[in-house]
Amino acid sequence: MPAKILVINGPNLNLLGIREPGIYGRKTLEEINEELRREAESQGVEIEFFQSNHEGEIVDKIHDCLNKVNIIIINAGAFTHYSIAIRDALQAVNIPAIEVHLSNIYKREEFRHKSVIADIAVGGIYGFGDLSYRLALEAALAFLQQGH
């Protein structure tokens, strides 16, 4: 059975390409997902995508990953900065996670400087626009190849 990666996107990421393109870029979430899908499939890895503007739906999706997903790539959006529920869900399922952000959260408003999931993630990639997702996928693939 091939390894499986889940990419979770939080609030407002469904508006990529429209929302503040100077910060988040012009690519849509669907375009980013398609690039990731092609790369994952070329590596023989299954990949699934999930986006929600609702915290509880993200928590439920994380719970559903138990014994089904090898690694999670997550851009929790604004929930990054305050959702203990998402943090607790990630800890509960004990699936390695890579945190992703399109923008450099440390060059933005001070409230964005704190991530409540950073310290439980395997690692994080931020500030490279849509390339952040491709770098996260590369990191996830390397992590899986190392037998994690």
From TrEMBL:
Protein name, entry field: 3-dehydroquinate dehydratase
Keyword field: Amino-acid biosynthesis, Aromatic amino acid biosynthesis, Coiled coil, Lyase
Gene Ontology MF terms in the entry: 3-dehydroquinate dehydratase activity
Primary role: Catalyzes a trans-dehydration via an enolate intermediate.
Gene encoding the protein: aroQ
Coiled coil keyword on record: yes
UniProt keyword Coiled coil present: yes
Sections of the chain in a coiled coil: 26-53
Active site, renumbered: 24 (proton acceptor), 101 (proton donor)
HAMAP family: AroQ
Annotated pathway: Metabolic intermediate biosynthesis; chorismate biosynthesis; chorismate from D-erythrose 4-phosphate and phosphoenolpyruvate: step 3/7
Record GO biological process: amino acid biosynthetic process; aromatic amino acid family biosynthetic process; chorismate biosynthetic process; quinate catabolic process
Pfam family for this entry, one: DHquinase_II
Subunit structure: Homododecamer.
Organism listed in the record: Thermosyntropha lipolytica DSM 11003
